[in-house]
Each structure stands twice: as structure tokens, then as C-alpha cells.
Amino acid sequence: LIATLMVGALALSPVGANATEVSPRQVIDSPTSPAPEVSVEQTAVKAVAGDASSATIKRTEVPPFQMAGVTWDADATAKDVTVRIQIRTNGVWGAWENLETEESIEGGRPGSVPLWSAAVADGVSVDVQAASGAVSGVKVTTIDPGTNNSVTTARVAAANAQDEPEVPEEPEVPALPNSEPTDGTPTVVPMPTIISRSSWGAASGSKCDSPTTQPKARGVVVHHTAGSNTYKKSDAAALVRGYQSYHINGHGWCDIGYSFLVDRFGQIFEGRKGGVLNQVRAAHSGVDAVNQWATGISMMGHFEKTEPSEALKSAMVRLVGWRLKYFGANPKGTYTVGGKKYQVLNGHRDVKSTACPGAVAYKWLNAVGGLRDRVAAYTSKATSAAGKPVKYTVPTGVKVSSRTTSSLTLKWTAQAQAPGYLVHFIQFGHSTGTRYFYPSTNSVTIPGLERGTRYQVRVAVANPATRERLTTYTTAPGLAAFTLTNEPSSSPKPTVKNSVTMSSSGSVKFKGRGFGHGIGMSQYGAEGGARAGHKFDAILRKYYPGTTTKTRSGSIRVHITGDTTSSVNVLPATGLKVRLLITGQIIKLPNSVKGRKVRNWMINNAAKNKAHNTLFYRSGSKWYTYKTFSSTAQFEGPSTIKLVMPDGSTRTYRGALRSVRPKPGSSERDTVNVLPLEHYLRGVVPREMPSSWSIEALKAQSVAARTYAARYLGSSKPFDICDTTSCQVYGGYADETARTNSAIAGTKGKILTYGGKPALTQFSASSGGYTNKGSFSYLSAVADPWDAWSGNANHSWSVKVSAKTIAAKYRSVGTPKTLTVTKRNGLGEAGGRVLSMTIKGSKGSKTITGNDARWAFGLRSDWFSF
């Protein structure tokens, strides 16, 4: 049973039996459609005439594919082979990419690891070079893995959309044989969710010769596929199909080489057939004895320079921990096979000379607190001092011990020896916005709740250090009704004062909420949400409902409005150049000219022809002409350039500083900073949000700011965006901070889209508790309790405005007598934002909007009363 929590006039009551928790030892085996057809093409790569150590295929059109790899004859004498590949997508040839190589296994062909392309490709070019010996029979194998297919049930899909993907829901499928003790209580190392071969669309392959099944797995070898790090979750099944097809058709193996594969989202895929509950020989290490006795697990991605995601790491801990405990192996022990001693848990490079599983992943495997340590900690509580399995019971006695207007505290019966607990909290009936808490004691406070909303809560025993769930979830049947407020439910609503009378010498006290237009994301609300435990994507979903996350990159042109002169004046620097944009000519700028030391460089109008530009340099107090040209030009070269402002101060910018005409034929010039979008954000986010705020709030701001900018990329104007509040505030390099740069990097390329286009991600300082409706459906008005955290002085405010100020703004009414709010939007305290109000005076009356009043009287927002 699952307890549901009603907030407002709030009730906790059981949910129907269809939501009953099932065994945590599960294999997802419920394909929703037949396995996709996988198409494979092989193209010969010709040897270079007169050079047996080289083979190449020039740009060649092939049938559409998403995966490609290169193999060669098993009896080739080539040593230290390097492979480069280039592919064409959307009619454009990409850059050359180097592919790692794999040895011949199971009598197959040696070759490269395969390359994955997110976009469908239709052209390929290959270059193979051997340091010594001859390379023969080179082929490039291209694979179309077929249309992506769903591999999860509805419940799993819902869990996958949650804030913490490393703790997915378990699907409702039959448990494996012998997967639970007879009393039904799971042990401390449950089998993680594994996506079966039938679900990801595995081909049957050929019958493996003399398949070896050993009685137990004595170790685990960690690999990486060395492919894409940016694949989508919906691509994962296709990726696994592609690997299997390449292993069978390219390398000539009988089946996929790995026992399991784990993607960057934490999904675990069954690999070689029959290997879930048995130690079936796979083809992964290059040493037959190790292949027989050790489980090969491959992390899907390239981890030579990139850190595996936390979702992937957590899944690896669950999978490796379960696997070793299942077969009784010590993760910090050793074993001997084939006359050689190995660690129970090691990387591929510990078995053969290879870069696998990548330098960063290998470091994590061996680091203090890394994979080996985490698995040891995860499995260490599996047995008692007597060596018997420790069994935890499902927590009971869940109840609400206290509550406030926006939070509640849960308690339950403490369990002996439990390392901690997992509390799963979600808005009832929704698949987004889930929050997980990992208390070490039997109590937790849930902040940031909304009155009038139903919630669902469940508790399990868990290990907070590794975030591994150790039992099924509990429920709290028969809980009584609760109200999430300090006030009795019958308390009268506070009186709203919508009209005020004033004297000619008096003043009016406005009582308001929020700061700014209130449309879209509240920045203080984002910080409140982050403090309540929400991730940046959940924050964005709240403020921009209905949008979709995609990626965007490119350069942006920013109008530097503070440089009001027609010149672009910069300080000299090592590597400084001028680029003429029409001709592409690059002029390297020296530190001295004709023996004169250069103090400044400047692009300005040519003296005799305003349509032309002149490059000047300054030495001492004089300016000299260096070159005159008709092209638009920019300074570039160093990582940063110092721009001299009209008052003599300097500002530092990344990228290039360009001199442009505001419009065709103009004799004036504007200064435009041209730089990568990600670098631009480094000068925006710290200007829009305090860098000391929570990292998840900064990430939300990063995505909102990137999206706002992406909406204007490619403008027909000489710039895309300005650097003031009229667009987004941008201060350049000097405003960058380590925290905001980290938040930007943590959301690299992410934008919000609607209808395939970047959304208008408006944001303001504070919503006051309810956002304002904007001009698009995704800018709907939503309740915002996050805005009310203690550090937000803008959530509620008051200000006095004199009658003289009001009279000066609206002289037609004469001496003001009364102010009356005549219409509100009906959302939030006091009836919400003011849509219209009437000023009555000695000469007449005037009806204005709340926004009119905001600007006329210096109010923080249009949400106010008296």
C-alpha cells in the first residue's frame, strides 16, 4: 500500500492495490513492440598502394546508419594500429575522430570500437595506419539499429522523469526464481532492475561454440564502450542493439561481448544471453580465463576525460554489489585464474594493455570513496557478525509529528541496525517533481509544500552513503486527516483593504508582494526550491510547464551599450589580431611599430571616408594610422581582450570585439562582443543571480538565461542581444565566478523549447507567492510557495507614497481623494495582482492598471493592497 498525503484540507489515506510494491529483484521484460530490424552494411577499405601498413577509404556514400566501426583480418601482422573515421550527417562532413582498438577474441576480427552518431549519417571516410607490419582485409561496418523502442513500463517511465534518476521505481513484473528469501524479506543487496534482451531488441546471434558456464563469477572487469557521452535516453536501446550487431557482424563474435551494459542515465541492460543469474563466458577482456570467470560490465560512454554521471555510478554500485554478493566474492579481494592473480574488481587495463575503461573512470574505480570502496560499503552490511544475512523489515508507524504552513515532519518506528532510510515524496498523480530524502534517523522534515495539493509518501530502509534502497517501500495505512497550517481550518481569511482615503498632505501605505513583472521563473523562488531539495530541472518544470529540454550551441553577438563612441579601443596583448570579415584576412598586431611602443589599438571611421574603417595605434599621447580598409573588422586572438570605455576605464571580454554599423549606410559604429554562447553566460548568470546561492538555483538560472539568448540568435541586426536589463544583464569576463561557471558547465547546452523553438524564458526577482500569466501557454500562473523562504525580503513589503507624488503623476484628477482597486486576477493572497484601479480627485477620476501604478509610484510589483 502507498499512503497519500493531502495538503490543505489534507488527508492521508491508502491508495489502491494496483500500486503495491513488488520484489526489488527484477528484470524488465515487457517489449511494447516487435524488436526493430537492424540493418548492416560492410564496405571494403582499400590498402594504400605501396604501403601495406595503411588503408583508406575516401568520402563514400553508404546507406543510412548511426553506428560505424572498422575491423581487419585476424591474421594481419599489423601492430599498434590507429583508426580515424569521418562521417557525413545532414549533408555536412564532420571532423575526423580517433577510435580505440579491440583485440581479436573468440576467433573473430580485431578492430576499433564503434562510433555512434545521434543523427543519421549517410557518408563515411576511414584512415587506418599501423606502426609496423601489414594491415589487410580492412572493412568498415555501418549499422542502422532501427527505430528506438520503449524498454520500460509506465511506472518506470514515470520514475525516470524524476529529480533523482539514480533511485528508479521498480516495474511490476514477475520476480526471478529464488530472488527472495522464503519469508519475503529482501536481503541487503537486492538485484537491481535489469532491462532484458527481449526488451532492448536483441538479435539471437549465432550459437556460441562451446559456451562456458562456470559455477560462479569470481570477479568483475569494468569497461567503457568508448562511444558517445551525449546520447539521449531514448537512444540507449538502439545503442545496445548497435553494439551487439557490430560485435556479431563486424568482429565476428557469436553475441554481444559484455555481460551487462550501463548507460549514463543509470539503466542496466542484460548483455550476453543467459548471463543474468549465471556466469556465462563473454568476450570482453582479451584473456579467455578471465572471460570465463569474470563478469564484463561496460559503462556506455567515453571516460578518458569525462566523469561518469552519478546515475551511472550509482547503477554500477548496485549492479557490481549485487553480482559479487550473489556469488560470494569480496570486492576488495583477489582471485587467480590462468596462473595469474587479479583483483576481484578491476578495470580492463588491469587485464590487457588498453586505455579501457578510460583514465577518469579507472581513477574513480580505485579512488578512496570510488567504485571499489562504494561497493565494499554497500555489501559490508550484507552479513551479521555470525556471517548470516542481515534482514531489514519494512518500516512501520509512519506518522506526521508536526506541520507548518509549508512543511511537515514525518516520523516512523526506528529499526535496529538500519544504516538509514529513504523517503520518497511526490505530488499524487504526477510523474515529475519527485523528491528523495536520505535521513540517517527515523525522522525527516519535508519543506516547500503547497496547500491544497495531494502528496504521496513512502519510506524504505536505505544506505544514505550509497543511496541504495535495502527494502521495499512501506506505507502507513489508516492515517488520520491532517491540515498543513498553523491556523484552524475555520479561521476567517484576512480582510483585504481595496480602498483608501487620503488627505492632500498625507500619504498612502501600499502593502505588496513580489518584485518585478512576476512572469515565468521567480529567482528567489528558484533559490527557495533549491533549498527545499529540488533539482534545477524540477524548478524549470514548475515555472515553464509544457516546455521541452533540448540542446543549443553557437556564437552570440552582444551589443556593448556602454561603449557609446564609434571606436573600438583595446589594450595590446600577446596574440592580438584584427580580422577583416569580408575578405577573411588576418592582421597580426605587433607590440611596437617603427620603434614606437603601442599603448592602444583602435578601429574607427576612416577620416576621409566614413564608409571605411581605419586601424589606428597609439604611442605616447598620439594616434597613428596603421591600415585603412572597407571591410567590417574585429579584434580577436587572446582568450580575453580589454576594451577601453569612453571614461578611460577598461572592461575585459572573452571572444572577439567587433566594430559594426548600426544600420546600412550609417557613419556611426557600435561595439559588439562575439563569443560562444557558453562563455557569454559566464558574464550573465552572476549578474542576474547571486553566485552564493544554491547550485541548483544557479543551474536553473543558467538554462533560463541560455534559452532567452538562444531565442534571438541569428538576428538580422548586427547584434543578437544587448547587455542591459532591456535584454539580459551581461558584464563580461570580470563578473565570472567559479560557482556560476560550474552551474553553467553543469547544464551545458540545455535550453527549453516549445513547438521546437526556444521558449521565452522570462524571469523576475520574486513572484510574491504566485507567478503572473505571460503571453505564452508555458508562462501560466502557478502557485509559488518556494518564494516565501526567510531570505526573501521581496516576498512581502510595504512602501509609503505621498499624495503629492500621486497628484504629480496624474494631474488631471486634481487633488487625490481616494484610491480603489476595482479588479484583480484572483490568484494568491489578497485576491492577487491588480488589473485595474481608480484614482478619484478634486477634478475627476482616472482608471489605471496595476502596472501603471507600479511604475508611477515606484512599487516593486503590481500585486498590492492598502
Task: Calculate the mean pLDDT score and round it.
Answer: 82
Largest sheet: 8 strands, antiparallel
- Total DSSP helices: 15
Dominant shape: flat
Q: What is the SS-derived class?
A: alpha+beta
Radius of gyration computed on alpha carbons: 33 Å
Helix share bin: 10-25%
Task: Describe the 3D structure.
The chain is built from 15 helices and 58 strands. The protein starts with a strand and ends with a strand. The longest helix is centred in the middle third of the chain and has 17 residues. It has 866 residues and is α+β, with helices and mostly antiparallel strands. Helices cover 15% and strands 33% of the residues. The radius of gyration is 33 Å and the shape is flat. Helix 9 crosses helix 12 and helix 12 crosses helix 13. The strands form 16 sheets. Strands 4, 5, 6, 7, 8, 9, 12 and 13 form an 8-stranded antiparallel beta sheet that branches. Strands 1, 2, 26, 27, 29, 30 and 31 form a 7-stranded antiparallel beta sheet that branches. The protein has a 7-stranded mixed beta sheet with strand order 39-38-45-48-49-36-50. The N terminus is likely disordered.
